[in-house]
Amino acid sequence: MPAPASLAARLAPSDQLHLVRWWDELAPAAQERLRGQIEAIDFEQLGALHQGQVDQPDWHAAARRAQPPVAMRLADRLTGGGGGLGVKPPEAIAAGKAALDAGRVGVLLVAGGQGSRLGFEKPKGMYPIGPVSDATLLQIHLEKAVALAKRHGKGVPVYLMTSPITHEEQIAFLEANDRFGLAEDDLFVFCQGTMPAVDEATGRVLMSDRGELFLSPDGHGGTIAALAAYKKAGVGAIDHMRRRGVEHLFYLQVDNPLVPIGDAEFLGYHLAADSELTSMAVAKSAPEDKLGNFVMVDNELCVIEYSDFPDDVAAQADAEGGLRFWAGSIAVHVFGVAFLERMLALKDALPFHVAHKKAPYLDESGQLVTPTENNALKFERFIFDLLPKAKRPIVVEYAESEVFAPLKNASGAPKDTPEYVRQFLLDQQRSWLQAAGVAVPADVPVEISPLWGLDAAGVAERAAQAPVAIEGPTYLRG
């Protein structure tokens, strides 16, 4: 039986009829799945993206007129000064604690990726990264939310974004582990949307099977739409936030277990500056560091990706001989919920970024072809592109050793490997114990669950309550 006339009429104007070429071979359930995928596509928008008719910023030109961002530098935080923001650390800490005590803070955790680059064919959040315990990335993050709730006497709801390829597996994993101690109403799992990949030469949507389009997650910028669009029992994440009184979201990505979730000082700068979007930065150690650059362009704060930043601009020095463009983005932010709701009302709040990629596809005979060169265009949105639209966006610098060790690469790469991340965790937690007066023998691995000590202050408090003896590999938990 041929495809329904309504589908054919939808596909014909954009030369996409190949998507129903094998319709009559599909079982009814597969037909309905394919119909749903096709009806979800804005073919007019897709065509404009392929033809370059959607405005794409000239980032190279923007970089050449950029200025360094106004920021709270690490040196000012450590010396207690107000820095570029005019807010002193004790003031920020007090404001952040008050918001946490009042239950006005939630966590937005992006966890849609697979661990394929790590040789781990599961969602990346399920990767066992604990140096002693093999605790997964998800466990570490969620235990931080549990510890925050215990400290402040209010639940800290976590809004966990998955992707279509990781959603069901992560749901099952979380339920099997009792959400790692989070109350049921403190975890809201939602799924991001997708965008089809298109043939670079023709703009035709690629197929991965006879009843399946080649769909990719629409980037972490898709978080904004998914917060409202994805519903559980008719309720979206934004609805849940309104009910819980959540006004600010601490945003992070699942691959970085060092993120100090709910850090009161960071939250406090956001609140004291009445900012709609606050970003955490680390100082770049070299011009070629693969971090997005926080810069001011035409008096607006934005991020320019390292791949779009000209080498000669990245290498510019400041008056002290350091990097002029020092502020590297680590994908940690605080968003005002009201700001995100305002962005939801704008159809094109975030621009698309176009990437040239290799994508397997079905040829006209229905055979799967694995290309050796780039053949496809993929379209993504990035959440940092909200910066220019936010009122009073600010940047706060933290030490890399405190906040940034992302798990991205398989063993053998220069950095961001499992071994690299575990060493950062060990070094950080050893320093917390030593600062608390606990003797840790050299070369003895010690790991601290957030449930035992959330941060340096939490470890000091716990160590003061009872002696801690470290003799061999140790996992402090509970």
TrEMBL record:
A Pfam cross-reference name: UDPGP
Enzyme Commission numbers on file: 2.7.7.-
Keywords assigned: Nucleotidyltransferase, Transferase
Cell membrane keyword on record: no
GO MF assignments: uridylyltransferase activity
Signal peptide as annotated in the record: none
Highest rank taxon of the organism: Bacteria
Family named by the database record: Belongs to the UDPGP type 1 family.
PANTHER family, sorted: LD24639P, UDP- GLUCOSE PYROPHOSPHORYLASE
Name of this protein: Putative uridylyltransferase
